[in-house]
Amino acid sequence: xxAAEGQKGATRAPYLSIRxxxxxxxxxxxxxxxxxxxxxxxxxxxxxxxGCGKTTLLRAIAGLDIQTAGTVVQAGRDxxxxxxxxxxxxxxxxxxxxxxxxxxxxNVAYGLDSRRGNRAETARRVNELLNLVGLTDHDNxxxxxxxxxxxxxxxxxxxxxTSPGMxxxxxxxxxxxxxxxxxxxxxxxxxxxxxGVTTIMVTHDQEEALTMADQIVxxxxxxxxxxxxxxxxxxxxxxxxxxxxxxxxxxLEGVSAEDGSVRVGPVAFAAGGMLxxxxxxxxxxxxxxxxxxxxxxxxxNAFAVRVGAIEFLGxxxxxxxxxxxxxxxxKADFSTNLVRDLDLRVGARIVVAVPPERILVFAGDRTKP
Length: 369
Fold this sequence. Notes:
This protein is an alpha+beta fold and 369 residues long. It is built from 10 helices and 19 strands. The protein has a 6-stranded mixed β-sheet, sandwiched between helices. Strand 11 and strand 12 (262-264) form a beta hairpin. Helix 4 (119-132) crosses helix 5 (148-160). It is elongated, with a radius of gyration of 25 Å. The model is unreliable at 4-10 (pLDDT under 50).
């Protein structure tokens, strides 16, 4: 699925338009013929594993690594060959890149001072930003005197100081501990919505992308595999790679049947597939989509299983289910209340079901992992 297809229904003219973008490092192709539209005011996440090209794409947009081929147009202006200083963006790096010898106030004012603007106006703007990020009482401290979360806020305020048309974030939360990350991603999203600034964030953290983005751009090996809302990406992944990378997924190898079902071992799943009979398929089932409460043997996609293992993961239990004859197994996520109510134990025999609409079927090869 191309980026253009992912945004087919959009009626707004794009604020940022990328066409045919390719980036080579010697003989290595880091980005391959990418096209993407980003609309004004959207929060877009580039999501993918290490080495997929997401940071290279961000750097091409910023002019820090000029593309080998292709165009980048921002607000109707071709910026493809412009140096970073002539592009309209603010950026926050993974390391924050604060000046250690400057106070918080001077760090935030740096971009404004370099423009040699009115001092009173600069002071007013800095005060406004410090208040916006909640650092008014820390304006005379140095970066070393701040926590990681506070440094991140300073970097964000500095990036916004010149009122850029676009905000670029290169894994800004990766250096923080889990609780601080959760808190700051809410703050960043709230701030972005308040300011309405078009924002692009690079992340390898699927939870960050799912909770913050209006649109997610999933990348793999230098290409865009899918563009969509968090709900689209999670609920309707376009490829097995996305199904595996975003969230947890069971992959079961099977064969399509004449009646449109897919057979995995002794179980025939109604899944609405359109593959020809006898085709090898990969059946994808999310662990949370396996139901057990109130399921009867006669229901659609109901089948008997044996509990093979139970893992306590805090807010839920991950249960390994083995089919009759141990022909396949799948993981299911059950609530603590359900496990307690049904008294689930290793070795217990139960009947589970998977709603047809929650099953994804991809063409596959049973020789593949």
